[in-house]
Each structure stands twice: as C-alpha cells, then as structure tokens.
C-alpha cells in the first residue's frame, strides 16, 4: 500500500491501517505503527536500528496522520528521545518509576485503617460492588481532571479480577481500591484510588500500608509503581515512605 521510496535502497510502505514498513533489499529494516487509547489520543512508535531509517519511517507516518500525536520513551534512552525530537515532538509530561519498600519499619506506614474503615485484602472483594466502584471512580476522573495524565494501564480498563484488588469499605460500601499485579518477580502497584467524597482521610495510605505489609510477609522486599510528576500528593506519599525513583518515562507530543 502506498510505497514511498527514499534514496536508492530504502522503501517505505504502508502495509496496513496504522502500520508502515521500511524495506531495504527486500528485507524489513524498520517498522512504525499507531495505537489509539481509550481517551481518543493516538500514540505512535517506530522500531528501527538506524537513524536514517527511523527518520524516514517517522516522516512517512507523520505525514499521513492528523495531529496531535503522542509517544512514550524511557527518559534514559537519550538516542530515542533525540530521534523523536528531530521529528518535531516535545516533552509533555514525566512519569516516575518507583521502587517501593514493603517493610513497615522502612515505610513507617501504620497498618491500622482510619476509624470505621475496613480493608479487604487482595482477593476478598466481591466483583459486583468492585465493578460499581470502578465505574464511580472513572466517572469522577472524567468529570474532573480527565484521562490525559493517567498511565496507559489505567486507561486500558482491564478486566476486573478481584484477585488483583484490595478494597477499602466504609459502612459496608466500597470507597477505595488498590490494584496490584503479581505477574513478575516484583509486584506492581497499578492504581490507588479513593472516591472523591472520601479523600484526604488516610484511606489511600491505609490501602497502601495493608498491601505493602502483606507483600512483605510473603517475602517481597519491593514493589514497583508509576506516578505522574504533576501528581504532587502521590509523589509526596511515595517519597515520604522511602520509595526510590528507579527511572522515568517521558510522554512526548507533536502538535
């Protein structure tokens, strides 16, 4: 589909909707593709070994797509960041990758929840009220700050598996949740959220304390978490419990 030749050796071809290949001597020397997130934004990626191939794929792809466009890079990957900046992208936001200690002697977190709040451990929540809480929290995000600064995994609306959630209940109603994935050797905290009317009462902190303590008891020394730099409350929380910033990702935008 729509091949575009650059120079004598590299051919850029749109092979499918949202997919481009760079061919050199009939071999695939690079790929580019797009993905559309649930918030409606289009993210782009290019996989190529050489700068020239990357630039040519990016040029062909960007010429065919409406703006704004987005991409995410590891901030430590200076070469990839420079490639996207050559294509016209600029930094929009930073997301910190934290290594979070689980030992309460390090975090200083008190496992006792606020008065009247009960923490249901991972796997104990009922699916129907958990699903209702997820809908309520998402509606509050949509009515307030929106999804633009949310990590991709939050937007993806994963299947609600109670085996991955700890829940805070108040007077029998679910008011907060924490999602943790155990798919790798290092558990990953994917989301901590509390209903707007119950925030600033220590419920999120109690969820975190309970879950980290449970991980510590099964021999997990650290957990991973991602926090947007602009989320002052979350960064202050993780910095305050001894979490270490292990890296960062940049979201870039082409307007």
Question: Would you summarize the structure shown here?
Answer:
The protein is α+β, with helices and mostly antiparallel strands and 255 residues long.
What is the name of the CATH architecture of the largest domain?
A: 3-Layer(aba) Sandwich
Query: Which structural class is indicated by helix and strand composition?
Result: alpha+beta
Q: Class of the largest domain, according to the CATH hierarchy?
A: Alpha Beta
CATH topology of the largest domain: Aminopeptidase
Number of contiguous helices: 7
The shape, in one word, is elongated
Biggest β-sheet strands, sense, barrel: 8 strands, mixed
Percent range for helical residues? 25-40%
Order of helices and strands: EEEEEHEHEHEHHEEEHEHE
**Strand tally, please?**
13
Outline the low-pLDDT stretches.
Answer: 3-8, 152-156
CATH superfamily of the largest domain: Gcn5-related N-acetyltransferase (GNAT)
Radius of gyration: 22 Å
Give the tally of structural domains. Answer: 2
N- and C-termini, Cα separation: 26 Å
Which percent band covers the strand fraction? 35-45%
- Side by side, the strands of the main sheet go 6-13-7-12-11-10-9-8
